[in-house]
């Protein structure tokens, strides 16, 4: 006798849109994340990626996790200027690493496998590291000084990659600019901050298979660098939309393409590797039930309520090592839903620094 029960009758509540989205609260998201592995309280954690990774790093540190600061600011630099000069943002002074190709390229450079070209750009007699142009807001005095800072940076990244137990990487963009002859990719087009745009450079927009292959190549190199071992890795996708697109497309489909590719790539990598977990910060922030309350007025920047909601989901699976997050007061959810422009009160959360945001200056 045939069973009258079909597969969907046996599914839990989390499998249905109505239960958790259309009739659910965006602030109480249950079962959206089930950790793949434990984080030992003594684990040395490294962070990198796009600007949203900064929120994760700051919150983990504030809650007792051991976040590596391999390239700390010099003692003479006031703390309030650390971020202006690229310090105390990520685990090393690499600025925003927007694409997986940048991560792979950095790893090859660290291991001495490639000698990158066009690494120093000039503007008004000052010199900039083309891969992290905003770490010195006014540039370096000479090419030699810029080169020495990069050499020091690479040595620190080498140490970071060797010692980290957990690597948290936020995928941000698929778009970049490439020096065609040397196959060198940059986070900015020449001329935006420094350098000069010419026919040697072209726009590139990475595809799904390229992103997956690039990350797998990164893993292979990292395993070699670490004498056969790999860290545990947590991937996230930045919910921060593109500031501008180098394609000829409207910003909305261009943004959706980029995020779709990165989300699919993260899912593929999580399925392929036992040491890779995916944390759904992108889904939490872009959840239709939130109706935009997690974004600031510019509809790009993630506000404090959004960061708090994301981190509460994370800490339900990976409890804080020390004290829980400080109380923020009770948010009036109904009022927030009715008025999207309301901002959640600022607290320990600092504004993330997005190098890409400088492109807004060119909008008309």
Helix/strand-derived class? Answer: alpha/beta
Radius of gyration: 21 Å
Q: What would you call the quaternary organization?
A: single chain
Assess the beta-strand content as a share of residues: 5-15%
For the biggest sheet, the summary is: 5 strands, parallel
Q: Strand arrangement, largest sheet?
A: 2-1-5-9-10
The number of helical runs is 9
Order of helices and strands: HEHEHEEHEEEEHEHEHHH
What is the 3D shape?
A: globular
Question: What fraction, in percent, of the residue positions are helical?
Answer: 25-40%
Descriptive overview:
It is a single chain. Helix 3 (100-110) runs parallel beside helix 5 (208-225). The protein has one domain (41-362). It has nine helices and ten strands. With 364 residues, it is α/β, with parallel strands linked by helices.
SSE order and pairing:
Layout: H1 17-22, E1 44-49, H2 52-62, E2 66-67, H3 100-110, E3 120-123, E4 126-129, H4 143-163, E5 166-171, E6 175-179, E7 184-186, E8 201-205, H5 208-225, E9 232-237, H6 251-272, E10 276-278, H7 281-286, H8 304-317, H9 333-338
Parallel strand pairs: 1-2, 1-5, 5-9, 9-10
Antiparallel strand pairs: 3-4, 6-7, 6-8
